[in-house]
Specification:
- By secondary structure, the chain is α/β, with parallel strands linked by helices.
- It has one domain (about 1-15, about 60-80, about 105-305): TIM Barrel, CATH 3.20.20.
- About 45% of the residues lie in helices and about 10% in strands.
- The chain contains ten helices and eight strands.
- The protein has an eight-stranded parallel β-barrel with strand order 1-2-3-4-5-6-7-8, surrounded by five helices.
- The radius of gyration is 20 Å and the shape is globular.
- The chain starts with a strand and ends in a 12-residue tail after the last helix.
- The model has no long low-confidence stretch (mean pLDDT about 90).
- It binds a DNA duplex through helix 1 and helix 4.
Length: about 325
DNA sequence: GCATGTCAAGTTGTG
DNA sequence: CACAACTTGACATGC
């Protein structure tokens, strides 16, 4: 089992810049592109720093923030890397980062946010979603990221019809997106059981979020869901991907959806240990939470193996 | 300097 | 019916 960090750091000196469409709109095009160029350049350099930190900490995967290149697909102020004054430099750096990730076996992924909805009945929503996915796929190509993970989206009163629209829209996606796209069970609408048929039909993998599954159960056990989701990865020849988090206020009454700072080791499914899989740790303490979980697992493993510490990552 | 309000986009569920 | 939650800053603005 390899652990993954999501987007940000708590203590490491890595940060990503952004800007807004509103601010950009007040500038002439030339100044817009100059400003964006500086931000994108800084962000790619920080992505390199992020991967160096991830490697140093023994983390095996990193989820890249969607706005690495902010507002790139915005209808008014959108742009291409080639439009930026430092475009060539930025493209070169992107390639370097990708090579670094490959060299050190750091798995990279994208997770577009809630505005990407392929099941929507509104054509403009779907069109915007496709544009955003194509942007993330271009970055994925440049960086060697094998995963763009999304949710199935809204239900609109009829889940089966919404999934049918999802499948129809899937075929309008460029191959660069289709070969990377994965579907994740969410905490209000779509369960593993809901998504499996669509994943099988389209030949796309299912990212199993065990916290969402516990908030939004479907009759499958954690072990069954892990196995069934795992089968969808075998067809595409990629290592299974899962998400793990702990509820901020515990599993007792109240809303258990908000994420806690750290992972309660009790929430880690025992059947995940020793399994060939990547597990993104969604916790507010970011890299501190990933490191703490790995330490706790090592301690447990060390006890099991009577004193042999420093287990290789893939045996965790 | 520091505090505060704002930020492209969708959908659902709550008050 | 309006608004917060998803994730969470970072930035621009104004004192």
């Amino acid at each position: 089992m390899r652990t993954g960090l999501c987007c940000l750091f708590k203590e490491e000196k890595v940060s990503f810049r952004t800007t807004t469409a509103k601010v950009l709109s007040s500038l002439p095009r030339g100044e817009q592109l100059a400003k964006l160029s500086g931000i994108c350049h800084d962000n790619v350099r920080n992505l390199q720093l992020a991967l160096e930190a991830v490697r140093r900490l023994g983390i095996g995967a990193f989820r890249i923030m969607s706005p690495l290149f902010p507002r790139m697909t915005h209808p008014q102020v959108g742009y291409e890397i080639a439009d930026l004054p430092s475009g060539d430099l930025i493209s070169g750096l992107l390639e370097d980062v990708g090579n670094y990730a490959r060299l050190h076996d750091i798995r990279l992924s994208f997770h577009p946010d809630q505005f990407v909805v392929l099941s929507s009945p509104h054509p403009h929503v779907v069109a915007n979603s496709i544009r955003e996915l194509a942007y993330q796929a271009r970055l994925g190509e440049a960086l060697g990221a094998d995963l763009i993970n999304i949710h199935a989206g809204g239900v609109y009163g009829d889940k089966q019809q919404a999934l049918e629209r999802f499948r129809r829209h899937f075929f309008h996606l460029p191959e660069t997106v289709r070969s990377r796209l994965t579907l994740e069970n969410d905490d209000v609408s779509y369960t593993v059981r809901d998504l499996l048929p669509t994943c099988r039909m389209l030949g796309i993998p299912l990212v199993y979020d065990v916290h969402h599954h516990r908030c939004n159960p479907d009759g499958l056990t954690v072990e069954e869901a892990t196995e069934l989701a795992g089968e969808t990865w075998q067809g595409v020849g990629k290592e299974q991907y899962c998400h793990l988090s702990s509820p901020r206020g515990g599993w007792g009454g109240g809303d258990s959806r908000p994420h806690a700072d750290y992972i309660d080791p009790e929430d880690l499914p025992p059947c995940w240990r020793g399994r060939g899989m990547t597990v993104d740790i969604e916790a507010k303490a970011k890299e501190l939470a990933v490191v703490r979980l790995m330490e706790q697992m090592n301690q447990k493993t060390a006890v099991i193996h009577e004193g042999h510490e420093e287990r290789p990552r893939n045996l965790l």
